[in-house]
Design goal:
Elements lengths: L12 H6 L14 E7 L5 E7 L1 H4 L4 E5 L9 E2 L6 E2 L7 E2 L5 E7 L2 H9 L2 E6 L6 H6 L11 E9 L2 H6 L3 E9 L11 E6 L4 E5 L4 H12 L6 E5 L12 H16 L3 E4 L2 H7 L6 E9 L5 E13 L5 H11 L8 E10 L14 H17 L4 H8 L19 H11 L2 H14 L3 E14 L10 E8 L5 E5 L8 H13 L6 E3 L18 H28 L6 E4 L2 E4 L2 E4 H10 L5 E7 L5 E2 L4 E2 L4 E14 L5 E11 L6 H21 L4 E2 L2 E2 L17 E7 L16 H4 L1 H13 L5 E2 L3 H9 L2
Parallel strand pairs: 1-14, 10-33, 12-13, 16-17, 20-21, 29-32
Antiparallel strand pairs: 1-7, 2-6, 2-8, 3-7, 4-5, 9-17, 10-15, 11-12, 11-14, 15-16, 18-28, 19-20, 19-25, 22-23, 23-24, 26-27, 28-29, 30-31
Helix pairs in contact: 6-7, 10-11, 10-19, 14-15, 17-19
Bound molecules: dioxothiomolybdenum(VI) ion (MOS).
Dioxothiomolybdenum(VI) ion (MOS) binds next to loops.
């Protein structure tokens, strides 16, 4: 291949480096208004009254909107419509950042002043702030019957019988906490309604979700809601469903004023209002044979959904299917529950419900190895999946299983046996600092999965101009991950045009068909395949034309990058495009890719859960300060089987970035709350890794091609994060000789374990 698998510069790199890219806050329109939100500021209560008279008198205030001004549904919910857009009088406030009113003004200052002058009365109610309290069901948050509103399960094989005959049983509880996506660009939108069409410019992962929700809130049809992707400074799941709620706010104000309205979130409001990774509590019981074979697994996981269910039921599906990890275990009983609490709603975050349980199962594997006197690498290798095996949901794997290769590569790259000796020596001669090594071996289901397969498709449009340049628009979005570059490389490879002649447009709901969200590590496969399909159609049109014109057969046309060679004469792609255009050849085409059919039994959680899987192995080296409990990650070796790297450097970038974000979750990041209110609402107290925290990273790519992927590609977006937390946790356990069972691994946590008798 000429382009695919090589290294390409980001196609939007220059604009970003020069500061020329247009992000949502960069947009200005004549007569544009600024918007602000009035928040409830209490976690649980009943709204009794709203008084806007004082606020309306603030000079520069143009419009104040409450629930009464909403022309459409006033409700949100991807699965269950359990969330109010603006809280009506007499109804419940369920978390500290529920929205009471919206204000549009000529200046930000006027809006800020008016926010202070809106008075509302609330009858406060006691709140539910922990999973344990939610399960007690004494106070109901958002369901009259129970806070345990959703349940998913796997029932495969016979776990109870297996436990009776096991050589070793490990039983353990695990806990994981929030993680904030911490995209550097906060949520933002500009909405402009001209009386006919609502235009929405925003930072998002799914313009189609925004189109649907704005349409329902305003009661206007889809063909009047044009949602346009702006340059986006990160999403990580946090811009999957959330931009719908934010865009609806700006859209309502624009609808009511017929003026452009800009709403850009301050970090504080972004952290307090928008979704995060779900805190979890898990109970695991695993059965092993003497030789280390994992023969049965029983687990129960509770996810803290917060006040509204949003994407939680879908997140739970991923928790379910990843609970038994990357191993061939035939007897599996898993229960996953989603519980309501009076806290910030949780939702999508890179990994989408899987990091919580991958941490648990990977800890169990280490503990089993220790009890059985095995090396933690050996127990993983013994249970790792191969072609012909079945996953924990009983998905028979027919191709693209590089799991063992990732394990082999990291063992070799890290010089593991030698490394172990070095660590032993280090620990012998150091009393106050202890080093440890920790493995993780994980699986990740690419695509929306069996439950979402009816929605799992993507459109891409490709247009070759008469001068040989090419425009692409795909249904996914560029959110900083490099999708534009990977997809233009695919089109470049198919059409034989150079990359620098290709341009990728921002996604626009008036042009491409609903292609679902840019999530689930699915964009390269879905939008990439759709772009490949469109490019292949154009290529067919061109070849057919050339065969007639030059009286040759297809095999006589040799395509090199930018050059078509016909009967020993060379034509540039530009010349070919001009010839074809002048002969009325169709040079724009639409491509489509939809999920291969997945057979899955939802009742028992058994069957083909995803279209394919990535497999990853990580080894981490950490150093623990035995006096303070501080953990330093020194080095990470990481291998991912991703089918095929389209843009080699892009993949390496994802591996590095994901691992550092995973490291942040493991040892640094902590959302702190007091009575349901977040107090770590900025980057001064919500601490994320910065450049000085980044350890040495040795990345490795395994390419076991996926037959349905573009040139064999699977995905790397999420697994890049997920291998890190369990590997680091296991390394800390290895260093301090006590098992870590809670993430984040805070200094307090480590010290109390060290001091435990
Ligand atoms: Mo992603 S967490 O699937 O937006």
């Amino acid at each position: 291949m000429k382009i695919v698998g090589k290294i390409a510069q980001r196609i939007e790199a220059k604009e970003k480096a020069y500061g020329e890219s247009l992000y949502t806050p960069d947009l200005y329109f004549d007569r544009m208004l600024y918007a602000g939100v009035v928040y409830s500021n209490i976690p649980h209560g009943i709204l009794k009254s709203i008084d806007i008279t004082e606020a309306e008198k603030v000079p520069g205030v143009v419009k104040i909107a409450t629930y009464k001004d909403v022309p459409g549904t006033n409700k949100f919910g991807v699965i269950t419509k359990d969330m109010r857009f603006l809280i009506p009088i007499g109804e419940k406030i369920r978390f500290e950042h529920d929205s009471i009113a919206l204000i549009a003004g000529e200046t930000k200052e006027a809006v800020e002043e008016a926010i202070e002058k809106i008075h509302f009365e609330v009858e406060e109610l006691p709140g539910v702030f922990t999973i344990e309290d939610a399960i007690k069901d004494e106070i109901k948050v958002n369901n009259e019957k129970t806070n345990i509103a959703f349940h998913k399960k796997i029932r495969r094989g016979n776990v109870d019988e297996i436990f009776r005959n096991a050589d070793l049983i490990i039983e353990k509880e695990f806990e994981t906490d929030y993680q904030e996506q911490a995209y550097l660009e906060t949520q933002g939108v500009v909405a402009y309604y001209n009386g006919d069409v609502m235009k929405i410019y925003a930072s998002m992962q799914c313009p189609f979700y925004v189109q649907e929700d704005v349409s329902e809130i305003l009661n206007i049809s889809f063909n009047k809601v044009d949602v346009i992707q702006m340059e986006t400074g990160g999403g990580f799941g946090g811009k999957e469903d959330v931009p719908s709620y934010i865009a609806s706010k700006a859209a309502l104000l624009s609808y009511l004023t017929r003026r452009p309205v800009k709403l850009i979130y301050e970090r504080e409001h972004d952290i307090k209002e928008t979704s995060k990774r779900h805190p979890s509590k898990s109970y695991y019981k695993a059965a092993f044979k003497k030789d280390g074979t994992l023969i049965g697994l029983k687990s129960k996981t509770y996810l803290d959904m917060g006040a509204y269910s949003t994407l939680s039921p879908i997140v739970m599906y991923r928790t379910l299917t990843h609970s038994a990890g990357a191993y061939k275990v035939p007897n599996v009983y898993v229960d996953v529950y989603g519980v309501y609490t009076n806290k910030v709603p949780c939702g999508a975050f890179r990994g989408f419900g899987s990091p919580q349980v991958l941490f648990a199962i990977e800890s169990i594997m280490d503990e089993a190895a220790e009890k059985l006197n095995m090396d933690p690498w050996d127990i993983r290798y013994k249970n790792a999946l191969e072609v012909g095996d079945e996953t924990s949901t009983g998905h028979k794997l027919e191709y693209s299983v590089g799991a063992k290769k990732t394990l082999e590569n990291i063992k070799r790259l890290s010089n593991y046996d030698n490394l172990k000796k070095e660590i032993k020596e280090f620990n012998k001669s150091n009393k106050l600092k202890k080093r440890g090594l920790g493995w993780s071996h994980i699986i990740y289901g690419v695509s929306l999965g069996a439950g979402g397969q009816h929605l799992d498709a993507s459109n891409s449009e490709v247009h070759v101009f008469p001068d040989g340049t090419i425009n692409i628009m795909f249904g996914g979005t560029e959110i900083g991950q490099g999708a534009k570059t990977a997809i233009s490389m695919i089109v470049s490879e198919v059409l034989g045009q150079k990359l620098e002649k290709i341009n990728v447009l921002q996604t626009d709901t008036f042009i491409v068909q609903d292609s679902g969200p840019t999530v689930a590590s699915r964009t390269t496969v879905f939008s990439g395949n759709a772009a490949k399909d469109a490019a292949e159609k154009i290529k067919r049109n061109i070849i057919e034309f050339l065969c007639k014109k030059f009286d040759v057969e297809e095999k006589d046309i040799k395509i090199n990058l930018g050059i078509y060679k016909i009967k020993d004469k060379e034509y540039s792609f530009e010349e070919i495009a001009k010839m074809a255009n002048d002969a009325n050849v169709k040079l724009n085409e639409s491509g489509w890719f939809k999920s291969p059919k997945l057979n899955f039994d939802m009742e028992n959680g058994v069957g083909e859960a995803y279209i394919t899987y990535t497999y990853s192995t990580q080894l981490s080296l950490v150093e623990v300060d035995m006096l303070t409990g501080k953990v330093e990650v020194i080095k990470m070796w990481i291998s991912h089987d991703i089918g095929k790297a389209i843009n080699y450097d892009g993949v390496i970038g994802q591996i590095q970035g994901g691992a550092v974000q995973g490291m942040g979750h493991a040892i640094m990041e902590e959302i702190k709350q007091v009575n349901g209110k977040i107090i770590t609402s900025n980057f001064n107290n919500y601490v994320i890794p910065t450049i000085k925290d980044i350890p040495e990273i040795i990345p490795n790519i395994v390419e076991e091609e996926f037959p349905y992927g573009p040139f064999g590609a699977k995905g790397i977006g999420e697994p890049s994060l997920m291998s890190a937390p369990p590997s680091i946790a296991n390394a800390v356990s290895n260093a301090i000789k006590k098992r870590i069972s809670r993430i984040p691994i805070t200094m307090e946590n480590v010290i109390s374990l060290i001091n435990e008798k």
